[in-house]
Amino acid sequence: MRFWLVLLLLPSLALAMGTPAQKPVAAAPGNPGVMLRDDALKASPSTAADAVAKLGRGVKVRVLTNDGGWTQVYAAGKTGWVRILSVKSDLSATPNLGGLVEAGNRPHDPGKVVAVAGARGLDEVELKAARFNPDELALLDTFVANRAEAEQFAQLASLTRRDVPYLPSPESQASPSSMSKQP
Amino acid sequence: MKRHLPWIIVTLCGIGLAQAGDFDKFLKGLIKEKLQPAAPAQPAAPAQPVAPAAPAAPVTAQQKPADQLLKALLSGNTSQEEELRIGQQISGNLLGAAPLVRDDGLQRYVNRVGRWVALQSERPDLPWRFGVIESEDLNAFAAPGGYIFLTKGLYRKLKSEAELAGVLGHEIGHVIRKHHLKLLQKSQAIAALGSFFGSKLKNENEIVQNLIGNGAEIVARGLDKDAEYEADRIGLVLSARAGYDAYALPAVLAEIGHVAKSDKSVSLLFKTHPLPEDRLGQLSEAVGERLDGLAEGQSGVGRFYRLR
Fold first, then answer.
1. If I label A15, which of A94, A135, B138, B197 is the partner at 20 to 30 A Cα–Cα?
2. Predicted TM-score (pTM) of this structure
3. Architecture label for domain A31-89
C-alpha cells in the first residue's frame, strides 16, 4: 500500500525537484520585461494620453500591471503605459513548464490529480465519455441571434464596422533560419 | 463481411507497422480506390450503410450516403450541410459533458456579441451559435459549421465585452479556416476506413460519430500551433473590425498567462494550445506597427453581462 503511495507521489516529487525555486524578487518593482518595439510611454492607458517618454526596442523595463490592452511599466525613472503587445514580460526566469505540462496530461498518468469535488472541470476523460445531448442542442438553438438582431445590437451599442485587413503570419515573412519547428 | 476481412487485416498490420504520414496517405488512397467505383455508376457496395436513394437521383444533404460524406471529408470538399452535421454531433456530445449555463440573458448576450463579430468574417451567414457551458475550467471550443462554446470559468475571467469578442473571434477563426475539418481529414483516415467496412453502422449519425471518435474527444485533441496562432490573429482582427479594442484578446491571453501552469483549470487549455506568452509573442510580431493608425475601439465594459 505504502509502495503505491510513493509511486503516486513520485511524479510530483520529480516536478518539485526539477523546478528551480522562484528567485526572490529584487528591490525593483514588478517583473522584468523588455520592449519588443519602439513605443511611447503614455501618462495613462489611452492613445489620447500624453507621452512622458519614448522607449526603444530592446529597452529593459519593469512590468507593473495590466489594464485592458495596456501594460504599466517602469523605465528610466518614469512610470507609464505602453500597448500590451509592445512589451514582453520576461518569463525566462520562471521555469518553462511546457514539457512537464504535457507529461502531466498523458492519459493514465499515475500522478494525475483527480478532479476536486464541486469544481466541475472538463478533461479528456469526460469529453471522451460524453453522450450526445439533443435537449441541450435544441436549447442552444433558442438563443441564436440572426444577422438583423446582431446588427441591431451593434447599432444600439454604437459599434461601428472598421476596415482592418487580416494580419499575415509572421513566419511567412521571417527568414527561415529564425524559425524553429517544434514537434 | 468475409470478403472484407483481408482488408481489415492489412489495415491492422499497417497500424502496427507504420504511424507515419505515408500510411495516412496510403489509407486515403485505399479508401478512394474503394469508394470511387461505389459512387454513382455501380451498384452500392455491400458495406454501404445508408443509401436508400436511387443512384442517379440528385444527392441532397439528408440522403447523402455515408461514403459521400467520407469522400467529401477526405478530399477536403465538405459542403456546408456536411460541416454542420459534423459540428452538430461534436457540439451535442460536448453539451453532454457540460450543459449550457442556465442563464438565458447570458446566452442571448453572448450570441449577439458573437454573431456581430462573426458578421465581420467571410462566412457571415453560417448559422452561428454561441454558448457558455458549465465548467470551471478555462477553455473555449469551436466545432465545424459555426458552433462556439466557452466555459463559465473563462467567462468569469473576462473583464469586458471586447475581451469576450476577442475570445469568440479566436474560435470563429477556427471555424472559418476549417481547422477541425482539416484535422479530421488528416487523422481520421483509419476511422473512416473502419466505418466504411463497419456494416453494423446503420445511419449517418453513427457514421459521423465514428468519424469524430469517442464523445467530444476531438475538442480535447488540439490543433497544431500554427492553427492557434492563426486563430489569434483572426480573433484580434475580427473584434477590431467589429468596433472593439483590438488589444482585448491579448489582454485575455495575459490574464490567462497569470494562472499557474499547474492549475487544473488550465491543464487542457495548455495541453491543446501554445502557452500564452508564446501566443502573445506571435501576436506581437504579427501586429508590429500595423494597428498604429487604428482608432481606439470600444471596451464595452459597461455593457458586459456579469455572471449571476
1. B138
2. 0.75
3. Roll (2.30)
